[in-house]
Design brief:
The mean pLDDT is about 95. With about 230 residues, the protein is of the alpha/beta class. It contains eight helices and eleven strands. It is globular and about 50 Å long. The two termini are about 20 Å apart. α2 crosses α3, α2 runs parallel beside α8 and α6 runs antiparallel to α7.
């Protein structure tokens, strides 16, 4: 169904419900699923959040300078990216971490043409450190990188099975959208991604699929074209 995809993972997904840190077992489970997709011939790029260590807009950062807090958040994504890279290499998958903040000892610098070349050679590329700029979330980084590498679709892995008009964990009558436009997300103020990321996708007609990461095999099903989660179009 898709030749080149960008997968957005939250940092919390790597923590496996513990709230903080990296759950090694869960990381290896995710890596095994990504390896299965990569062996299908799909070119895989990944953006990982850092919320399992530090989030620049969280309560813990309320007394901090926003720029300093965001830089700490970016470094958190590098920790997660290296953990995922190690797990992927244990699956015999060639993988590269490319950081928007230069740190040559642990990651390659992000260079768009080099990233595309890695994908063409069958390597999984993990984009770390967000956009490299404060005030931009990893959702925005995922949208930006997906367009830069000309991905066919942006896949956002979450703990719910799609987009709802209200929080399905709090509301029993929450209604799921099988398909929705970016404009409707903005109009209804749905908390799917931040508005910058949504606007970027809308303006550049990049389709996005929101799906449940906690169901084994879902990444493979989504890439194969099964109707899973919610499809967002321009």
């Amino acid at each position: 169904m898709y030749k080149r995809v960008l997968l957005k993972l939250s940092g919390e997904a790597l923590a496996a419900g513990r709230g903080f840190g990296v759950d090694v077992t869960r990381v290896h489970e995710i890596a095994a699923e990504i390896a299965d997709v990569q062996r299908m011939g799909v070119e895989m790029a990944i953006v990982v959040g850092g919320g399992n260590f530090f989030r620049g807009v969280a309560e813990q950062a309320k007394d901090m300078d926003r720029v300093s807090a965001d830089h700490m958040g970016m470094l958190s994504t590098v920790i997660n990216s290296i953990a995922l890279q190690d797990a992927l290499e244990k699956q015999n998958v060639h993988c590269r971490v490319m950081s928007a903040i230069q740190m040559h000892q642990v990651a390659e610098p992000y260079i768009r043409r080099r990233a595309i070349r890695h994908l063409e050679k069958g390597r999984v590329v993990i984009f770390a450190a967000g956009t490299g700029n404060p005030y931009f979330s990893t959702d925005t980084a995922a949208s930006l990188r997906a367009m830069e590498i000309k991905a066919d679709v942006l896949l956002k892995a979450t703990k719910v099975d799609g987009i709802y008009d209200s929080d399905p964990f709090l509301s029993t009558d929450a209604v799921k959208f099988e398909e929705i436009t970016y404009m409707d997300i903005l109009r209804l103020n749905l908390k799917v991604m931040d508005t910058t990321a949504v606007s970027l996708c809308k303006d550049n007609s990049l389709p996005m699929i929101i799906f449940n990461m906690n169901t084994p095999g879902n990444i493979q099903r989504v890439v194969a074209g099964e109707k899973i989660g919610s499809l967002v179009t321009a």
